[in-house]
């Protein structure tokens, strides 16, 4: 019996739709949708109605606000094709330096300015090592991570009267604490600021020449050089942006925690990079990913951490979760060839 051409065309159309759906789910967008659905569904079943209460939503958004600010700035280095593993230690150094200066009766605003300059200085050292001397980014920033951790501990122990076992500088800055704890309805003010930053950065990356240049350098540095782009300068400034975000995050944590523990930011670089990779960024190649995807990736991790807290589980379960996520996302990144989340 002859096959109806119309039926064949319809069948091909259905196949093409199926292929489109399959491609969507295998990309970063699909990773986010599936991940959020699984985590929220698990929380709704295991924790119950408390998952969707305004207080619980406040906890989730409060958890991700500061890491989101740090991650948005760190994402510039990933887009430029540079992995900065020192951001967690930079957060600790920022907090300790800021607390040290404030407890030494330095004006808070001046202390903040000095702290930012100190962190930018170490970001510049990363830039010189990687851009000028051609050091491997992972090796260079890993060395910086270790060095900054040690420096933070030394500065913490230098605080007069604290003794040699000091692992934190206690400090309560009322105005900064009120700012970090402020909320509008169930939404922390810090989260609102972080979300606005996401939209602003999204616009910069998507619609400005500077954003396109960062993508171009990360995507194909040889082609970018041939096009006349200042590739070294772009990479250098992307590392400064990463350091700047970490410096802001460290000071915000001082206000939120009422002190500066030297362990602050431990493993934060892995959490943030896991979130960015869920959202479509790649540590294997630059030029892919966008801030909105990074935000949604961090939201997945925040919801899981909230689930762990609500069930009273060992908090190290969140680290195990992030570790498995990194393995899965690296595998998916290799399979999809670093396609952008669009």
TrEMBL record:
<keyword id="KW-0813">Transport</keyword>
<feature type="transmembrane region" description="Helical">
    <location>
        <begin position="85"/>
        <end position="102"/>
    </location>
</feature>
<feature type="transmembrane region" description="Helical">
    <location>
        <begin position="236"/>
        <end position="255"/>
    </location>
</feature>
<dbReference type="Pfam" id="PF02653">
    <property type="entry name" value="BPD_transp_2"/>
</dbReference>
<feature type="transmembrane region" description="Helical">
    <location>
        <begin position="320"/>
        <end position="338"/>
    </location>
</feature>
<keyword id="KW-0997">Cell inner membrane</keyword>
<feature type="transmembrane region" description="Helical">
    <location>
        <begin position="109"/>
        <end position="135"/>
    </location>
</feature>
<keyword id="KW-0472">Membrane</keyword>
<dbReference type="GO" id="GO:0022857">
    <property type="term" value="F:transmembrane transporter activity"/>
</dbReference>
<feature type="transmembrane region" description="Helical">
    <location>
        <begin position="291"/>
        <end position="308"/>
    </location>
</feature>
<feature type="transmembrane region" description="Helical">
    <location>
        <begin position="55"/>
        <end position="79"/>
    </location>
</feature>
<feature type="transmembrane region" description="Helical">
    <location>
        <begin position="184"/>
        <end position="205"/>
    </location>
</feature>
<keyword id="KW-1133">Transmembrane helix</keyword>
<dbReference type="GO" id="GO:0005886">
    <property type="term" value="C:plasma membrane"/>
</dbReference>
<protein>
    <submittedName>
        <fullName>Unannotated protein</fullName>
    </submittedName>
</protein>
<keyword id="KW-1003">Cell membrane</keyword>
<keyword id="KW-0812">Transmembrane</keyword>
<feature type="transmembrane region" description="Helical">
    <location>
        <begin position="25"/>
        <end position="48"/>
    </location>
</feature>
<dbReference type="InterPro" id="IPR001851">
    <property type="entry name" value="ABC_transp_permease"/>
</dbReference>
């Amino acid at each position: 019996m002859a096959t109806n051409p119309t039926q064949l065309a319809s069948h091909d159309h259905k196949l093409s739709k199926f292929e489109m759906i399959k491609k969507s789910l295998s990309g970063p967008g699909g990773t986010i949708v599936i991940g959020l659905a699984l985590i929220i569904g698990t929380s709704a079943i295991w924790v119950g109605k408390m998952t969707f209460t305004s207080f619980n939503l406040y906890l989730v958004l409060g958890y991700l606000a500061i890491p989101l600010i740090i991650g948005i700035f760190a994402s510039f280095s990933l887009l430029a094709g540079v992995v900065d593993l020192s951001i967690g230690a930079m957060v600790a150094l920022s907090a300790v330096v800021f607390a040290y200066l404030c407890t030494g009766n330095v004006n808070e605003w001046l202390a903040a300015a000095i702290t930012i300059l100190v962190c930018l200085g170490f970001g510049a050292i990363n830039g010189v090592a990687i851009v000028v001397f051609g050091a491997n980014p992972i090796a260079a920033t890993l060395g910086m991570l270790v060095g900054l951790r040690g420096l933070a501990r030394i500065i913490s122990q230098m605080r007069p009267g604290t003794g040699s076992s000091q692992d934190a500088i206690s400090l309560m800055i009322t105005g900064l604490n009120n700012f970090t704890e402020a909320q509008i309805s169930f939404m922390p003010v810090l989260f609102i600021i972080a979300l606005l930053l996401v939209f602003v950065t999204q616009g910069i990356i998507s619609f400005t020449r500077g954003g396109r240049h960062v993508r171009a350098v990360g995507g194909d540095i040889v082609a970018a050089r041939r096009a006349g782009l200042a590739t070294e300068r772009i990479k250098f400034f992307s590392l400064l942006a990463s350091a700047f975000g970490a410096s802001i995050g460290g000071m915000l944590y001082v206000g939120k925690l009422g002190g500066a523990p030297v362990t602050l930011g431990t493993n934060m670089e892995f959490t943030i990079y896991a979130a960015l990779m869920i959202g479509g960024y790649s540590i294997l190649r630059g030029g892919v990913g966008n801030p909105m995807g990074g935000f949604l990736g961090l939201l997945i991790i925040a919801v899981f951490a909230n689930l762990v807290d609500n069930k009273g589980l060992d908090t190290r379960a969140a680290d195990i979760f992030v570790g498995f996520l990194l393995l899965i996302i690296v595998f998916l990144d290799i399979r999809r060839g670093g396609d952008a989340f669009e």
